[in-house]
Amino acid sequence: MNRTVLGALILVFFLAVDYLFFKALKDSVRNFSISAQRWISLAYWAVPVIFILGFLYLFFVAPDTTPPKYKRIFGVAFFMIYSSKMIGAVIYLLGNGLNILKNTGQKIIKPSSTEPILTRSEFIAKTALALGATQFGVLTYGILSGAYDYRVRRVSLPLKGLPKQFHGMTLAQLSDIHSGSFYNKKAVNGGIDMLLAEKPDLVFFTGDLVNDKATELQEYFDTFKRVKAPLGVYSTLGNHDYGDYAQWSSPQAKQQNLLNLMEGHRLMGWDLLMDENRALTLGGEKLGIIGIQNWGSGFVQKGDLKKALQGSEEFTNKLLLSHDPSHWRAQVLGQTNIDAAFAGHTHGMQFGVEIPGFKWSPVQYRYKEWAGMYEENGQRLYVNRGFGFLGYPGRVGILPEITIFTLESV
């Protein structure tokens, strides 16, 4: 299927969504004056026209000169409006579809009946509009309230055989910063203040410092340079750090972007682990810190765990930084003696429900391990919900996270 045909099908789909939602709107305002109905119709259809013109301009007329932030704003507005319309359109279609089927069946059973038992109800139309509006309201709230609502999560991390020198040590984890997505520097600095107030002994960063390009870090370099700890800051790369989702003038430009990002880690004082390990030494005892490049099911698989483990035999305990949680079950669990792995990547899809005793997000249908602590046969994985956001500039239910672990000897 060529791009023109695909584009035409996508356009038809969204126009169908527009039409169904408009039908619900029209049914809901049928008692308004004719003049009011006309103005409402004009205002409604102006939005799809604006989106079509905006899309053509941003991605076809001036794709190279349009700043990326305007494309992101356009994408977010499109997502919020049309995800809300789709919910309303589906409710309207289902409600009226059932009515049509029931009316048809009733006429077959009682052909003499001149009045349909069920007609297209104004209630269904208003329900469709209400649910669509609720979706839009929730997404708006997620932007205004959830994007920077940082939460410190304190987690006990028991490690079998952990030397007493490390018992009680605190370890902070950040993940998925996505510095190119931020739009409130004061709020981001506030999140880093929260981390530093915990005074962790050690900090792990588990990938996705940027969305695509190393230049995204420039505005927030001084912010994240503040992340320090007495025993060091260790970091690794995520799938977004390689520049795979951006267009480059040449392979050399893409490679240079990665080198620039790696240099950014170094200049911030972060020890970037590229399929290698470090020995954290206290009182003659050693704790192994291992870090690999991204390895994910369905994503880039550059990480080499065997290489990263070389020379780690002397470590009593081993902690692994690996961005994608799918790596744990694929190569770590039951195949290594790594005690605990630290990941991110999922963001909890930035949407879901978390209450005591229950958590849910659509991302769980893609990832078995997607948020929080998991333990199997004595090995553990912690999946951080992410510090930043990607795409949708907000969070609903699954809030940005700073994790503070306390190591315990068992």
Number of domains: 2
Rg measurement, Å: 26 Å
What's the assembly state of these chains? single chain
Number of beta strands = 14
Q: Structural class from helices and strands?
A: alpha/beta
Walk across the major sheet and give the strand order. Answer: 1-14-2-3-4-5
Q: What composes the largest sheet?
A: 6 strands, mixed
Supply the CATH superfamily name of the largest domain: Metallo-dependent phosphatases
- Termini, distance in Å? 59 Å
CATH class of the largest domain: Alpha Beta
What's the quick description here?
By secondary structure, this protein is an alpha/beta fold. Helix content is 41%, strand content 18%. The chain has two domains: 3-145, no CATH class; 150-409, Purple Acid Phosphatase, chain A, domain 2.
